[in-house]
Amino acid sequence: MTAFSTDNQKNLMLFSGRAHPELSEQVAKELDVPITPQTARDFANGEIFVRFEESVRGSDAFVMQGFPAPLNEWLMEHLIMLDALKRGSAKRITSVLPFYPYARQDKKHRGREPISARLVADLLKTAGADRIITVDLHTDQIQGFFDGPVDHMHALVQLSEYVRNHYSTDNVTVVSPDAGRVKVAEKWADSLGGAPVAFIHKTRDPLVPNQVKSHRPVGDVDGRTCILIDDMIDTGGTIAEAVRVLREAGAGDVVIAATHGVLSNPAAERLASCGAREVIVTNTLPITEDKKFPTLTVLSIAPLLARTIREVFENGSVTGLFNGSA
């Protein structure tokens, strides 16, 4: 009987879209692997072309893409890259999305509205993604939109460690910007040694995006250092108003901590003048010079992404990165 054998060794290949190459380069350095060379260009009418310069057959492919503006263009590029890998016979394709696009459209608020976060998940699956790695989804339920494994990572470890190293935790209150993120605030409180939790009671007009009318804080904030947490900061209106409410309630220093710094105009101006002592975000999205201001601190999410990619590649435990608490 004649048999055919192969060493069948796994081959990790890292790919990067053009939206946030700096983060991809940081992840590549952490993994000690090169970014696979590719040709990517736009046609005159806006169509996108991508071709990889090396064979991807049988590879364990990890495709990174950031989603700043213009988000739709980068989403289309990412889908095209997934399709190219699928047609190039990659063995497994993992879509690495530090910031999941359309995450805020995760449910219908009124009739005749789309659930765009589910649509994005369907597009990723159809294009060829077998797995998703992402960071701090707007809501956990988005994990269920994708028909495959989703590794939902959290920047809490990096953010809370920075806060512990730079601020005394003896007089800290963790503040959620609304009642919906109180559970996240409780995890923050545990990471800061059992700090008390408060939240801002607010109302939002569903007909007017990016505008919130904040009310009073619920919880002990008087004279305390308030760590105001959120998953993302877009135009900064919500978080700046929350800072004002906390100040009026007698809070001491207010420190803002968020994973995703979307920072759409006029966020930089609002955050610079809102009275917060410091604004801490990660680099899941590129922070360009026009978005920077003196009190902004940007932490790198690359080590977390690299460890996650390595665990997935080696069939290890992603949950173990959070000591089993993810």
TrEMBL record:
<keyword id="KW-0067">ATP-binding</keyword>
<comment type="subunit">
    <text>Homohexamer.</text>
</comment>
<dbReference type="Pfam" id="PF14572">
    <property type="entry name" value="Pribosyl_synth"/>
</dbReference>
<feature type="active site">
    <location>
        <position position="202"/>
    </location>
</feature>
<comment type="pathway">
    <text>Metabolic intermediate biosynthesis; 5-phospho-alpha-D-ribose 1-diphosphate biosynthesis; 5-phospho-alpha-D-ribose 1-diphosphate from D-ribose 5-phosphate (route I): step 1/1.</text>
</comment>
<feature type="binding site">
    <location>
        <begin position="45"/>
        <end position="47"/>
    </location>
    <ligand>
        <name>ATP</name>
    </ligand>
</feature>
<dbReference type="InterPro" id="IPR000836">
    <property type="entry name" value="PRTase_dom"/>
</dbReference>
<dbReference type="GO" id="GO:0006164">
    <property type="term" value="P:purine nucleotide biosynthetic process"/>
</dbReference>
<dbReference type="Pfam" id="PF13793">
    <property type="entry name" value="Pribosyltran_N"/>
</dbReference>
<keyword id="KW-0460">Magnesium</keyword>
<dbReference type="InterPro" id="IPR005946">
    <property type="entry name" value="Rib-P_diPkinase"/>
</dbReference>
<dbReference type="GO" id="GO:0016301">
    <property type="term" value="F:kinase activity"/>
</dbReference>
<feature type="binding site">
    <location>
        <begin position="234"/>
        <end position="238"/>
    </location>
    <ligand>
        <name>D-ribose 5-phosphate</name>
    </ligand>
</feature>
<dbReference type="InterPro" id="IPR029099">
    <property type="entry name" value="Pribosyltran_N"/>
</dbReference>
<dbReference type="GO" id="GO:0005524">
    <property type="term" value="F:ATP binding"/>
</dbReference>
<feature type="binding site">
    <location>
        <position position="138"/>
    </location>
    <ligand>
        <name>Mg(2+)</name>
    </ligand>
</feature>
<dbReference type="InterPro" id="IPR037515">
    <property type="entry name" value="Rib-P_diPkinase_bac"/>
</dbReference>
<keyword id="KW-0418">Kinase</keyword>
<comment type="function">
    <text>Involved in the biosynthesis of the central metabolite phospho-alpha-D-ribosyl-1-pyrophosphate (PRPP) via the transfer of pyrophosphoryl group from ATP to 1-hydroxyl of ribose-5-phosphate (Rib-5-P).</text>
</comment>
<dbReference type="InterPro" id="IPR000842">
    <property type="entry name" value="PRib_PP_synth_CS"/>
</dbReference>
<dbReference type="GO" id="GO:0006015">
    <property type="term" value="P:5-phosphoribose 1-diphosphate biosynthetic process"/>
</dbReference>
<feature type="binding site">
    <location>
        <begin position="104"/>
        <end position="105"/>
    </location>
    <ligand>
        <name>ATP</name>
    </ligand>
</feature>
<feature type="binding site">
    <location>
        <position position="204"/>
    </location>
    <ligand>
        <name>D-ribose 5-phosphate</name>
    </ligand>
</feature>
<feature type="domain" description="Ribose-phosphate pyrophosphokinase N-terminal">
    <location>
        <begin position="12"/>
        <end position="128"/>
    </location>
</feature>
<keyword id="KW-0963">Cytoplasm</keyword>
<dbReference type="GO" id="GO:0005737">
    <property type="term" value="C:cytoplasm"/>
</dbReference>
<comment type="similarity">
    <text>Belongs to the ribose-phosphate pyrophosphokinase family. Class I subfamily.</text>
</comment>
<keyword id="KW-0479">Metal-binding</keyword>
<dbReference type="GO" id="GO:0000287">
    <property type="term" value="F:magnesium ion binding"/>
</dbReference>
<keyword id="KW-0547">Nucleotide-binding</keyword>
<keyword id="KW-0808">Transferase</keyword>
<dbReference type="GO" id="GO:0004749">
    <property type="term" value="F:ribose phosphate diphosphokinase activity"/>
</dbReference>
<feature type="binding site">
    <location>
        <position position="230"/>
    </location>
    <ligand>
        <name>D-ribose 5-phosphate</name>
    </ligand>
</feature>
<dbReference type="GO" id="GO:0002189">
    <property type="term" value="C:ribose phosphate diphosphokinase complex"/>
</dbReference>
<feature type="binding site">
    <location>
        <position position="178"/>
    </location>
    <ligand>
        <name>Mg(2+)</name>
    </ligand>
</feature>
<keyword id="KW-0545">Nucleotide biosynthesis</keyword>
<dbReference type="InterPro" id="IPR029057">
    <property type="entry name" value="PRTase-like"/>
</dbReference>
<protein>
    <recommendedName>
        <fullName>Ribose-phosphate pyrophosphokinase</fullName>
        <ecNumber>2.7.6.1</ecNumber>
    </recommendedName>
</protein>
<dbReference type="GO" id="GO:0009156">
    <property type="term" value="P:ribonucleoside monophosphate biosynthetic process"/>
</dbReference>
